[in-house]
Amino acid sequence: MTENLCVVFGDQLSQNITSLRNFRKKQDKILMMEVVNETTYVNHHKKKLVLIFSAMRHFSENLKKQGYSVIYSKINNSSNTFTEELIKQCKVTKPKKIIVTHPGEYRVLQEIKKWKKILKIPISVPDDDRFFCSIDEFEKWADSKKELKMEMFYQMMRKKHHVLIDENGKPKGGKWNYDVKNRKRLPKNHPKIPNILEHKPDKITNQVITDVKKKFSKHFGKLEPFWFATTHEDAVKSLNEFVKNRLETFGPYEDAMAQNEKFLYHSVLSMYLNIGLLEPKQVIDKVLQKKNISIESIEGFVRQILGWREYIRGIYWHTMPKYSETNYFNAKNNLPKFYWTGKTEMNCMKNCLNQTIDDAYAHHIQRLMITGNFSLIAGIEPKQVCEWYLSVYADAFEWVELPNTHGMTLYADGGILGTKPYAASGNYINKMSDYCKDCKYDVKKKEGDNACPFNYLYWNFFLTNEKKLEKNPRLWTVFSNIKKMSQERKKAIKNDSKKFLSQISN
């Protein structure tokens, strides 16, 4: 008989996870499961499946080498759900208690809540303390605020964890936020950007690649070449490479985009953080150790993890399950097929989509201001957009994907997360990238068949949603321009938008 059966999910691949904190090797067992439902509830990118399964199998093998007793259920002989597999394994192991760290996703938590009744065994669900802010702590903070502003939360986290804080309790450098300095376009003749560290698949990963080829051939995205880290050791190498070669220039160019630069100066560490191969504190500590780096880059990166990532998780658990059902603009258009195929004549979209197909990755500005911006101003139904983001990116888990997409990108929550919709015309894209120079559409044209679709869709979005947005103080300039528009111009905008949207809906 087993004393404790400790369940470890595929996004909990850390030996510091609370479910393993008091593990006794002689009495306890670990259960890890590759189950069918987790691979098919959305059409996950093939590379994402390989990343998670390979990382799980490596983690399991590492635990076994250390003397842990691990039951590992592979996808080829596993059940459809966590619950079904757990029932099967409990019949064999007969545990007195099941321990599982609080899951990342609401739907998984609902499944766990049924286990006690089904199994008639005590279930312990300790907090996931890999995060800087617990769910309860965020709740207390949120309940005390009229508006849930990320900036205020971020400052609180900085102070509490003493990150970039001087001996007087003030922010290092004199400011909390250096965003204004981190909005540079990549200049012409910019020095070559260091390549990110790519990891060669080993025997375990190659077996997973074979499994995914066989079982998930119809899933989205290109499977090979596969280059992600699948062990803690390799993820640390990727972290070290980023800090050494790209951190210094991360800040100024974090909002830039370029045709032949998939990664620019971004860390490309989010997929490792989100499955447990790296931990947030570990990453921030490493970044803070780097000397002689501009405060703009250090603060800009810290903000992403200590601020935004923690805030997003807090919002998710604070608002679920109702959050996903909101649709502030009543957007009803279907997601165009080119989101799945990459076949579009809009060069910015084509670049970002093909990059996503190839690598299960796009950096945050590509997601927010290209694919996300288009889905916002084209009036695409939030659920379809969220499902796409959850499917195609290797770092996408609902807790991080849903608030980012539903709230930040689509403003479908009506302003819980953001203070305004992040809508932009072609001018922004042209300013921050080189996409427009090789595009069929003319970014300088506002109307007609050759005009950049982002231009008329942008204004159509605000015309359509004028009543809901005109009183937003951050959109004063937008609506003052609309007031100056002739009726002919408004009609042309609406006609161009209607024509284009009907073409892409086929």
List keywords for this structure.
single chain; Rossmann fold; Serine Threonine Protein Phosphatase 5, Tetratricopeptide repeat; DNA Cyclobutane Dipyrimidine Photolyase, subunit A, domain 3; 3 domains; 23 helices
User: Kindly state the mean pLDDT as a whole number?
Assistant: 96
Q: Ends: how far apart?
A: 59 Å
Which regions contain 5 or more consecutive residues with pLDDT less than 50? none
At the third CATH level, what is the topology name of the largest domain? Answer: DNA Cyclobutane Dipyrimidine Photolyase, subunit A, domain 3
Helix content: 40-55%
What is the CATH homologous superfamily assignment of the largest domain? DNA Cyclobutane Dipyrimidine Photolyase, subunit A, domain 3
Radius of gyration: 24 Å
Q: Summarize the main sheet.
A: 5 strands, parallel
Please identify the oligomeric state: single chain
Specify the CATH architecture of the largest domain.
Orthogonal Bundle
* Count of all domains: 3
Structural class: mainly alpha
Query: What is the 3D form?
Result: globular
% residues in beta strands: under 5%
